[in-house]
Design brief:
Number of domains: 1
Number of helices: 13
Number of strands: 5
Helix content: 40-55%
Structural class: alpha/beta
Strand content: 5-15%
Radius of gyration: 18 Å
Shape: globular
Length: 261
Amino acid sequence: MKYKKNINKILNNTIWITGCARSGTTILGKILSTLKSVEYTFEPDYLYTLLPKIHSFNKRNWLNLYNTYLIEELFFNLCVGRKANFRKIDDSYIGHSLSAKDLKAKLRINLSRIDFEHYLEKNKKKLVIKIPDVSRNLVALEKYYPKNKFIITMRNSKSISNSLIKKKWFRNNNNLPSIYKNRDMFGKNIHKKWLKLNEKEKTEEYIKQINKYDKKLKNKHVLFYENLVNDPNKEINKICKFLNLKKTIMTKEAIKTIRRT
């Protein structure tokens, strides 16, 4: 499917927050979701299925599925408020991203897909997707969309390992979260060997594999979790410069919630 100029800009300039689970992607996502003109989405379920298929589908077929999903299902509905989560206990709660005034304005938008290109001409939007664990898939995606930008969260490996073991995600293969059952996460051969490891070994190999592919991403900014909690204003300013985005009042409030170590 072919799109016009401003819609294509969204596809070409999508921003990704990724890295290992438990490395700070959630807290960073909350902050970046408040930046001016950002449409933010928290771990879209379908992308955990679609992104790994980039390794097995031919380019034309995969791009047709990906572009249609990203624009028609995800981005358009984000712009008009149909993807807003009103559960206050969730990390993806819309109140973390928008003020009450801005949310009301979003929910009043009456926009058809026919007018979407014109809407984007007047409203310079950026799509930010927070999704850990898919670094291998994003390395392949970057070949299709080299202008996409990637914010990689890094954290002390021991801290990540301890957190994952506490979560018990890798303790039993039968009870693995579904995203870790996907053979295209690391590649079929490595994944097969990974399943045979014990919990501690799985955790260490998981971190090793995600970090390996993070290093292969080119158009990236690396954020160290420890630096973020110690000097959040400095680190967010660096990211804003990399993304060419501006903070809002909500951004400043979100930064205040970060606990210093």
